[in-house]
Amino acid sequence: MKRMIVLAVALASIAGHAWGQKPVDRASLLQDPEWKKVYDDYVPDAGWIASLRKRSEELRVDVYFAFWCSDSLNHVPVFLKIMDAVNAPGFQAAFYEVERKALPEQKYYVEGLQVERVPTFIFYAAGGEIGRIVENPSASILEDILAIASGGQN
Q: Buried (b) or exposed (e) across 117-138, using 16+ Cβ within 10 A?
C-alpha cells in the first residue's frame, strides 16, 4: 500500500510539471506572419554574433513562450534569428508553448522550473543551468545571451 501511495504522488508530481506546456517545432514558430516579420526585420550585430559563436558550442536553451504574449512576439523570433546567425551545431534550443494560467492565483506556468513569466529562456551548459532571460532582456536578447554564455548570470 505504501508503495502505491509513493507511486501516485510521483505520478502526480510528474503530471503537474508538464501541465499547460507542449513542445513546439522550431519551424512552426515562424508560420505566424507577425512572428515572421519580427524575425525578418531583425538584423543582429555581426561582431556580437562572432563573439557568441565562439562561446555557444554546448549551449542548450529551453524557451517557454506563448503565442498570445506580446513579449514572446518581440523576443522569440529575435532569438531564432540569433540562433540562425550563430549557426553552431552545438547551440541547441527546445521550444515549449505554455497555456494561460488556469487560475489567477496560479503562480507558475511551469511549476518545477519556476517559470513565472513568458517568455523565459533557460540556458544550460555542462549539465546545469547557467542563466535565464525572463520576459524582457536586461540589455538586448543578443547581449544577454552573450553575457550568460560568457559566465555572467542574468
A: ebbbbbbebeeeebbbbbbebe
Confirm if 142 and 136 have CB atoms less than 8 A apart.
no
- Residue 2 C-alpha cell reads as 505504501
Selection from 113, 14, 127, 104 nearest residue 63 by Cα: 113
Q: What is the pLDDT of residues 57-73, one digit of tens each?
A: 889 999 999 999 999 99
- Beta-bridge partner residues of 23: 96
pLDDT for 84-111, tens place per residue?
999 999 999 999 999 988 888 899 999 8
Domain spans in the chain, listed from the N-terminal domain onward:
21-149
Which strand (E) or helix (H) includes residue 65?
strand 60-65
State whether residue 136 is helix, strand or coil.
Answer: coil
CA distance 66 to 144: 21
Q: Do the Cβ atoms of 96 and 112 come closer than 8 Å?
A: no
- What fold does the segment set 21-149 form as a domain? Glutaredoxin (3.40.30)
% of the chain with per-residue pLDDT over 90: 74
Assess whether pLDDT exceeds 60 at residue 8: no
* Cα distance between residue 27 and residue 63, in whole Å: 14
Residues 6+ apart with CB under 8 A from 115: 64, 98, 108, 109, 122
